[in-house]
Design goal:
29% helix
Length: 73
Amino acid sequence: MSALPASLRIDSATRRVSLDQREPAFFQDPYAAYHATRPLGPAFYWKDHGLWCFTSAEVVNALIRDKRLGREI
């Protein structure tokens, strides 16, 4: 696995992450940073973008299928 991007900052207590996705280390291999966020749980807040991110395909699949989140089909 590649080295973590220098800009990656993780606050485990609040599940908030700061990361510059334009950093060459992240752009070349984002998986090291993604792997580092998984212990935060199923979701983390990416402060730089103001959005919640989900850490597994299983969680994303469940969210897509959850009718309480706006799915009308």
